[in-house]
Amino acid sequence: MRRDLEAVLMVVDQPVAELDLARAFDSSVEEVSAVLEGLSREYTEQGRGFDLRRVADGWRFYTRPECADVVEHFLKEGQEVRLTQAALETMAVVAYRQPVSRGRVSAVRGVNCDGVMRTLVLRGLIEEAGQDPESGAHLYRTTSYFLERLGLRDLDELPDLAPFLPDDIEGFDDTGEHAT
Fold first, then answer.
1. For the purposes of burial, counting CB atoms within 10 Å of the CB of 90, is it exposed (0-12), middle (13-18) or buried (19 or more)?
2. Which candidate, 34, 31, 36, 48, places its Cα nearest to that of 5?
3. Closest by CA position to 23, among listed 42, 38, 13, 8
4. How many helices (H) and strands (E) does the chain have?
5. What distance in Å separates the CA atoms of residue 39 and residue 51, rounded to the nearest whole number?
6. Whole-model pTM?
7. How many angstroms separate the first and last alpha carbons of the chain?
8. In sequence order, what are the residues at sequence separation of 6 or more whose Cβ sits closer than 8 angstroms to the Cβ of residue 173?
9. Residue 94: predicted pLDDT
10. Contact 63, 20 (CB under 8 A)
């Protein structure tokens, strides 16, 4: 099973759930989980250039962080489009405030975010998550692809924002604006 799991995980382009792997191999989820965790430990102990990680409700191979410079040097620069500062800030607001409307994101950032939000939806990093019952505005949340790209299992692994907040946040409402 170890060899077969490695072969399948080598060709997937997104994390694969333990349940899906268990079904494919006609095994129990517990058995598949134990093998995956064992493989992950083994790769770490051997100091391999890749890592098997559980992220976004599934498992996938990743390059080890200590190999990042070599991989970056190998790949053509600019091959992958990078996010702008505006896109990163917008994505952070969505990640920490979700589900959130475009208007709320714009209020927090202090600029219109409609274009950036469309770009993030097109790239699969955020998605619609229903409508606000009071205003009828579309709500947005991050996707499993967002978690995968950040190497997170779930949103609870996002870093705490407290160290980055100003010392005096009294007088701000929940949009980040000064309350009147």
1. buried
2. 36
3. 8
4. 8, 5
5. 9
6. 0.54
7. 63
8. 179
9. 94
10. no
Residue with tokens 């009071």: 134
Is the model's pLDDT at 77 over the cut of 90?
A: no
What would the mean pLDDT of 62-75 be, rounded to a whole number? Answer: 81
Residue with tokens 């010392």: 167
Contacts of 27 by beta carbon, 8 Å cutoff, 6+ apart? 1, 21
For 176, half-sphere exposure in the C-beta direction (CA atoms, 13 angstrom radius) is 14
Q: What is the mean pLDDT of residues 37-52?
A: 95
For position 80, what pLDDT does the model report?
A: 54
Look up residue 58 and give its two tokens: 């599934």
132 Cβ contact partners less than 8 Å away, ≥ 6 residues apart: 101, 138, 139
Q: Give whole-number Cα distances, 122 to 83, 118, 119, 138, 153, in Å.
A: 12, 6, 5, 16, 22
